[in-house]
Amino acid sequence: MKIKNLAVIICLLLMSTLSACSSDYSESIEINWGISLPKGYEELFSVDSGASFHGDGDRYHVFSYKEELKQSEIEKFSSEKNPYVEDEVEKILNSLQVSNEQKPDFSKEYYWYRKNGDNDSRNKLYLIYFNEDNILHVIEQFY
């Protein structure tokens, strides 16, 4: 009887751990940055610098939306090209060895948003949205 109970407990722990690992990426963005990504995306590409004891490193995700994002969903974004943001994003993506095909195409018009971390201002989030393609690039850098 004790072995059955132990087996049930182990199975429940494994199931809860697996469900936590497979959670929606937008939940991570909400927890880390206090930003809700618009729903209804499909993940096209994802890469990160790997697990770290301190949780530092870089992450990059590319999401596709079926429809253009509403103005209310990108109201905090800037529509003016920003060479500084482009350079910073390029540096992070180069460190992750992202191919040119997976990088944002800054020759197109885009909207961008940048946020520094609340607890550590060195942490950065970049959101780059191309409404022509309905593609959102999410770039995170943690120290």
Automatic annotation (TrEMBL):
Keyword terms of this UniProt record: Signal
Signal peptide positions (record): 1-20
Domain of life: Bacteria
Protein name in the entry: Lipoprotein
Species, as recorded: Alkaliphilus flagellatus
